[in-house]
Amino acid sequence: MSILTLKSVRYRYSSRYHNVEALKDVNCEFEQGRIYAIVGKSGSGKSTLLSLMAGLDLPSEGDVLFSGKSTRTMDLDAYRRNNVAVIYQNFRLFPMLTAVENVMYPMELHGIRPKEAKKRAEEYIRSVDLPDSVFNRFPSMLSGGEQQRVAIARALAMETNLMLADEPTGNLDSTTARNIIDLLARLAHERNYCIIMVTHDTELLDMIDVTYQMKDGVLVKV
Ligand SMILES: Nc1ncnc2c1ncn2[C@@H]1O[C@H](COP(=O)(O)OP(=O)(O)O)[C@@H](O)[C@H]1O
Ligand SMILES: [Mg+2]
After folding, report:
1. Domain 4-221: which CATH class?
2. pLDDT at position 218, please?
3. Residue ranges lining ligand 1, Cβ < 6 Å
């Protein structure tokens, strides 16, 4: 079964002055063990779609199903806390916490004791190909590529199989970007994650299993 399914998803932004039909009829399935890309012009609805998949909002019509269950019938706070990890373009690490403390954070929210969380955090940091020397460094002491690896380690520490990424390579040079996508693809293939990434970096699509284009509020396979 697919981990995430979108069924006839529509989304409208409504205000007193205008209505924008951002998503018109999105149907799609995402499976574990694969990395997906969603591409499309600015304003085509990519961020809107990601926010529905991340449980930040509900569709105006249709359903987003996680493991067959609609986000409509879920506690969305619990869904965001337990089931979906999000990686951002600007990393969004906590500046006052070290790399290890950043990665410990989701585990501490889940009630894992600090000693155990620290041990797992160190393993997650090693698993994104960072050396032990970054453990106690603050984000400001890390390069952009290193910060994004720590952010990926923190996403792994959510201990869910679904990872969403909004332009994860947008702030990185092309070599570093390629290394990050290579890492994400390996996580999908070797550790059975479902990784869905929004990007406009078409140079990196050769490493992606399935690419969709968002066009006028509809997703089409490329
Ligand atoms: N908060 C909002 N209020 C009204 N319209 C919005 C809002 N956010 C996005 N939109 C509109 O919805 C459409 C899709 O936007 P978005 O999902 O941000 O596209 P993308 O991420 O592909 O650039 C655009 O027409 C945009 O102007
Ligand atoms: Mg966007």
Report:
1. alpha beta
2. 92
3. 13, 20, 22, 40, 42-48
Which pTM was predicted? 0.94
Nearest to 120 by CA among 140, 132, 103: 103
Q: Cα separation of 46 and 144, whole Å?
A: 24
Terminal CA-CA length for the chain? 23
62-107 pLDDT, tens per residue?
Answer: 999 999 999 999 999 999 999 999 999 999 999 999 999 999 999 9
Taking CA atoms only, the protein residue closest to ligand 1 atom 7 is 13
Beta-bridge partner residues of 219: 214
Give the model's confidence band at 184: pLDDT under 50 very low, under 70 low, under 90 confident, else very high. very high
Q: How far apart are CA 165 and CA 24, in angstroms?
A: 22
DSSP 16: S
Q: Where are the domains of the chain?
A: 4-221
Protein residues near ligand 2, an ion, with CB under 5 A: 47
At what angle are helices 174-191 and 144-156 packed, to 10 degrees? 20
Report yes or no: 181 and 167 within 8 Å, Cβ to Cβ.
no
Q: Return the best residue to mutate from 48, 51, 56, 167 for the ligand 1 pocket (most ligand atoms within 8 A of CB).
A: 48
Which ligand 1 atom sits closest to the C-alpha of 49? 17
Residue 201 banded pLDDT, cuts 50, 70, 90: confident
